[in-house]
Write a structure and sequence with these properties.
Number of helices: 3
Number of strands: 8
Order of helices and strands: EEEHEEHEHEE
Distance between the termini: 37 Å
């Protein structure tokens, strides 16, 4: 079997700040063990098996590395430090691999959007949004959770 290597992407998977739904994710309380075992998938726009018309086409990649960063000294390379300087709050740093090189049409389209932004020195339009199980809520703070997937989104 041929060995395919897809586009490698990285960034802030989630940060300890108020999200669009008014919740704050506690990074320390997030279980990322599935990500460290390579079992966290990347989907497009929060599409899951519960969505009408859901298919394997909605899964566009996987997380290949995840690390919680709480302070600048936690950064072990220039990429992590770059994102720390942008966010300045505890965050989940992730590296993902898209399935574009294996012929996945959705991942190829997504890689094209990212590549076009990069080539034209424009902001990358695609961001990350963590998906998971909320285990403990205190008000609007998600104190403990389990990372299950990460959505790639333009929302």
């Amino acid at each position: 079997m041929d060995k395919a290597q897809g586009m490698i992407i990285d960034g802030v998977g989630g940060a300890q700040s108020i999200d669009r739904s008014g919740e704050v994710l506690d990074i320390a309380g997030m279980d990322i063990s599935d990500a460290k075992l390579g079992r966290v998938l990347l989907n497009w726009e929060h599409r899951s098996s519960d969505n009408e018309g859901a298919s394997a086409a909605d899964v566009v990649g996987r997380i290949i590395y995840a690390k919680k960063i709480f302070k600048e000294s936690d950064c072990s390379n220039d990429r992590e430090l770059l994102y720390w300087k942008q966010v300045g709050l505890p965050f989940l740093y992730v590296i993902g691999r898209l399935f574009d090189a294996a012929g996945h049409h959705g991942a190829q389209a997504l890689a094209s959007v990212i590549r076009d932004c990069h080539i034209n020195n424009e902001p990358i339009l695609v961001g990350y949004s963590v998906e998971g199980t909320k285990l403990e809520m205190v008000g609007s703070n998600i104190k403990t959770s389990i990372l299950r997937a990460i959505a790639l989104t333009v929302q």
